[in-house]
Design a protein that fits this description.
479 residues, alpha/beta, Rossmann fold, nine-stranded mixed β-sheet, 17 strands, binds 6-O-phosphono-alpha-D-glucopyranose
């Protein structure tokens, strides 16, 4: 039985199945992996979903890593829950991504998928309930598992349950697009937790405000940041007992030492040499994202094109190193977006490129060493999401860049709260403003660039993953 449990859709390990039937394990990185390393693995378990055929085969063969428990939910149910609801409905909801004349459509098919989402959440809740020691702390992650806190509380009222949202939280007004019963189920699912964590007060307040509005079917009263010694929601569901759910903000940062060490490994040096040969002594504008609608890659490239159109003095003097690796390609809208990014990069190269200068170097591979090499070379980092829970890349680049980089950062990033003073901030929709900010960034005097970059790096490392994780654990055990 474990005294600390983590639950997330994507786990710390994945399995690949080779043609000859052998399985190989690959361990992933990320904030949660380093966070959980703060507690002993004998005492903890990480429950995650089997995502691929390789993962499912590993579960079938009983292969697992210590401290990791993979759930093989039936593939059709998983697909409905992950692609059909988590990625197509909840992701779009929290990031305000719908193309309103056409979407969303809540029909019988949606209801069927929602059933699967419920079942997939229930599989997690049951597994956690079976593995948790008396009074254990459970840290549930993200929109994939929004119903788990409520389901788990019913099964195991003794547990201390936390939930952390890595995305934004939908604004109350936008949330009203969801059918009312679904909206309430979502809010009450979350309110099963003792503590709900968010990256910023903006997202946390959106939750509190929404819960106040959507507590119907019971009473939920939001305690908003300004007027209380604690922040959260008092609630009393018909037939249940009165409880309160605390809402807290833990803005995840990066581990500076670990990141710098990773950025100086031989494979990164190798990529760096290759990139330097391509870029020469030109300046660089760097971005690294999943090809994700909310990351606003297309408007970022339009801004770069406008810079080159309006300020020809930059021709042959700058290169845009854009890493936009494919993500969620099971969804048609993501495939179309990925294609649009590649097309625009080609157009820019065709419009301005010369024999010796390729204005955009687009990489569509998920190649972390290459990304780190690009971070090291960054003179300017372009991070312009329309709406983004945190955006760790905005924190990573200033930590790793060698000559200090200027951060062009949109107001939509969660990181905006902590980094705005030393970044050049832009509206994610204003392409011309972004182009002007890129020019200002490229021409910033070296001393100002270095000073700002140092302060950005300090802010970025204020709450590294281990502390971020331990803070949540302590808060959960507090009362
Ligand atoms: C976001 C979410 C994470 C998710 C990641 C990658 O950052 O907050 O929970 O793991 O995207 O998305 P994917 O669908 O590839 O797991």
């Amino acid at each position: 039985m474990a005294s600390v449990l983590v639950a997330s859709n994507r786990g710390p390990v994945s399995y690949a199945l080779a043609a000859d039937g052998t399985l190989s394990a690959r361990r992933g990185g990320g904030g949660l992996v380093s966070g959980l390393s703060a507690v002993s693995s004998e005492d903890s378990v990480w429950v995650c979903a089997a995502l691929s055929d390789g993962d499912r085969e590993a579960v079938r063969r009983g292969v697992s890593e210590p401290g990791v428990r993979m759930l093989a939910v039936e593939p059709a149910v998983y697909d409905d829950a992950y692609n059909g609801i988590a990625n197509s409905v909840l992701w779009f909801l929290h990031h305000h991504l719908w193309d309103i004349p056409r979407e969303p459509v809540f029909d019988a098919e949606f209801r069927r998928r929602w059933e699967s989402y419920r079942a997939y959440n229930r599989a997690f809740a049951e597994e956690l309930a079976a593995r948790a020691a008396e009074g254990a702390a459970v840290l549930v992650q993200d929109y994939h598992l929004a119903l788990v806190p409520g389901q788990l509380r019913e099964l195991r009222p003794d547990l201390r349950i936390g939930h952390f949202t890595h995305t934004p939280w939908v604004s109350p007004e936008y949330a009203r697009m969801l059918p009312q019963d679904i909206r309430e189920e979502l809010v009450w699912g979350m309110l099963g937790a003792d503590e709900l964590g968010f990256h910023t007060w903006g997202w946390a307040s959106a939750f509190i405000e929404g819960a106040r509005v959507d507590g119907a079917g019971g009473v939920a009263e939001g305690v908003l940041p300004a007027d209380a010694s604690w922040r959260g929601v008092h609630h009393h569901r018909a037939g249940g007992t009165a409880r309160r759910t605390r809402v807290a903000v833990h803005p995840l940062g990066v581990d500076g030492d670990e990141l710098r060490a990773l950025a100086h490994r031989p494979e990164v040096d190798e990529r760096l040499a290759g990139l330097r040969a391509e870029v020469g002594d030109r300046m660089t504008i760097v971005r690294v994202d999943r090809t994700e609608l909310s990351k606003n890659v297309v408007r970022g490239m339009l801004a770069y094109r406008e810079l080159l159109r309006e300020r020809p003095e930059w021709h042959d003097r700058v290169v845009h190193l854009a890493s936009a690796y494919p993500s969620r390609q099971d969804l048609a809208v993501y495939r179309a977006y990925t294609a649009a990014v590649a097309e625009l990069a080609e157009e820019i190269n065709a419009e301005f490129g010369t024999e010796d200068w390729q204005p955009v170097l687009l990489s569509v591979k998920d190649d972390f060493p290459r990304s780190l090499a690009a971070y090291r070379m960054a003179d300017v980092a372009l991070i312009n999401p329309v709406r983004d829970g945190m955006n760790l890349v905005a924190k990573e680049i200033p930590v790793v860049s060698e000559s200090g980089c200027v951060l062009v950062l949109s107001t939509g990033a969660g990181a905006y709260d902590e980094l705005r003073e030393d970044a050049l901030t832009v509206s994610p929709y204003d392409v011309s403003e972004t182009a002007r900010a890129l020019h200002r960034a490229l021409t910033m005097p070296p001393s100002e660039r270095t000073d700002r970059s140092k302060r950005l790096a300090a802010a970025a490392t204020a709450l590294p993953p281990q502390q971020w994780f331990l803070k949540q654990l302590e808060a959960l055990r507090e009362d």
